[in-house]
Amino acid sequence: MVAITLIALLALVLAQPGKRGDTDFNKDGITDSRDAMMFDHVISGGECETCDSIDFNRDDVFPSDADTQEFYAALLGTHETDPVRLGAGENGFTPVILQRGGFEAFVAPPPTGDDANPGTREKPKASIAGVMKGWREPRHGVIYYMEGTYEYAIRGQYEQIPFGGISRELPLTLAADPQARERPLIRVPENESFALRIADSSHVRVQGLAFDCVENQQAVIDIAGTVDDILIEDCLMKGGSVGVRVQGLDQRVGTVTVRRNIIEGQRNVESHSQGVYVSNAQRVTIEDNVFWSNGSRDTFCQGMYLVHDSLSERVVRRNWIGDPGFAGVQARGGTYEVHHNVFDRCGNALGIGHPMGFGHDATGEFYENVILNPKAPGWGIALQNMNQTVVRDNMLFAPEGVGYMFIRENPSVGGDVRNNRGYGFEKFLEISNPAATSEKFADNGNVLFRAVEIPKVPWNVLRARAMRQWGYDHDAYKFVQAVQRVNPW
């Protein structure tokens, strides 16, 4: 309370009505990431006698999300008039337009929805199963979820898609009703149930829905069997053990895109838990998502776990991966393109290759990612069993004397690790397996600076600046560019 009072008095002295504040917040003559760090410190209750007013927009209301939003918009070169690409609630969800020739059906929570109804807007069904009852083949069209809360409380009960669409151009789409004021919410209070399962079905789109599950032993959305051409877009997923699980089992899953989703709070205290799990699947793209606080340190957990299938093509780009139980991304087998992601407060931000081998080498390119504030054990990038893999132009920031920029666990074939820059880590390279010493990359344009300048833009700050409410921040790419600007080579 005393700190807030002092801040308020300082703001009254420094405020200039009608003018926006100064992005050189700490008044050291330079606008850089130190200003972001100090702004966050002060607006959270800290003190700074030399800093500018936290009433950044000079509206005499402070501290406020509006001040935070405008400060970071100015610092990162965005503006109030910039369009928000995707948002929750007031910003709307992805609109879905029925294509010519497709069917249209509506579902609603009981008692409005009843599977005895014809499935029109006036008389909706109660479930996807009710709509698909009697289907014997794939169909093209849209099933709209009307506004409300759908609850599956019986063990093992979930919505399953037994038939998909006809083709990539004629898909089956599950989407929010365009007339809904809020996202339809699917709740799963049972700890052994999915929310939605797509099994042996192709050409399926899931867009604009919200899922709220208890911490459990199942995925929120499960994609399994022989499937192809699946899109999960603009969904909110909270709870469960895995946000989206893509698992080929004995079959082959192909062409799956997970785009612009919020995946938060996946917990399975008995086993693995991840934001996304991919196994025996190829042509998988994970882009523009936010992964937040997935996994528990008591179990094996991470933002994304991609494993099994050395022939796969896996793209991970422009995601914000924050505060996982341990790892940000584990890329354990396959051909990868991983770039322009932001890793925030990860125990191990990026793991490349399988530490135990098992013949699952990782190949491809990992480049221009930003790694911030690693927590214990404080590993930036772990390298093991790579095969002709390029790791380049990544930027890693740690508090002074914390953790390892690289940890080398197993040898690789043709690893090209170059032009990576670290700040503050205790050690540039830790060799945990003597067999890994045969590879030398410390002099390949890589450098570790002991003095650290963390371009800290915390999760809540980005959320307030970009989206104005809980849910979205899809500015990972823009943030990476900003970090590169304020920390030029």
Terminal Cα span:
43 Å
Shape: globular
By oligomeric state, this entry counts as: single chain
Round the Cα radius of gyration to an integer and report it: 24 Å
In total, the number of strands is 35
Work out the helicity level. 10-25%
Mean pLDDT: 76
- Strand order of the biggest β-sheet: 1-2-5-8-11-14-17-20-23-26-29-32
- Detail the poorly predicted runs: 1-18, 78-91, 456-474
Strand content: 25-35%
| Class from helix and strand fractions | mainly beta
Total helical elements: 6
User: Quick one: biggest sheet?
Assistant: 12 strands, parallel
Question: How would you characterize the overall build of this protein?
Answer:
- With 489 residues, the chain is mostly beta strands.
- It has a domain at 2-82.
- It has 6 helices and 35 strands.
- The chain is globular.
- β1 (103-107), α4 and β2 (141-145) form a beta-alpha-beta unit.
- 12% of the residues lie in helices and 34% in strands.
Jot down its keywords.
single chain, 489 residues, mainly beta, twelve-stranded parallel beta sheet, 6 helices, 35 strands, 12% helix, 34% strand
List the helices and strands and how they pair.
Layout: H1 2-14, H2 33-43, H3 65-75, E1 103-107, H4 128-132, E2 141-145, E3 149-151, E4 159-161, E5 172-176, E6 185-188, E7 196-199, E8 204-207, E9 210-213, E10 219-224, E11 227-233, E12 236-238, E13 242-247, E14 253-259, E15 262-264, E16 273-279, E17 281-287, E18 290-292, E19 301-307, E20 313-317, E21 320-322, E22 327-332, E23 334-339, E24 342-344, E25 348-352, E26 362-367, E27 370-372, E28 379-383, E29 386-392, E30 395-397, E31 404-408, E32 416-418, E33 421-423, E34 427-431, E35 447-449, H5 459-467, H6 476-486
Parallel strand pairs: 1-2, 2-5, 3-6, 4-7, 5-8, 6-9, 7-10, 8-11, 9-12, 10-13, 11-14, 12-15, 13-16, 14-17, 15-18, 16-19, 17-20, 18-21, 19-22, 20-23, 21-24, 22-25, 23-26, 24-27, 25-28, 26-29, 27-30, 28-31, 29-32, 30-33, 31-34, 33-35
Helix pairs in contact: 3-5
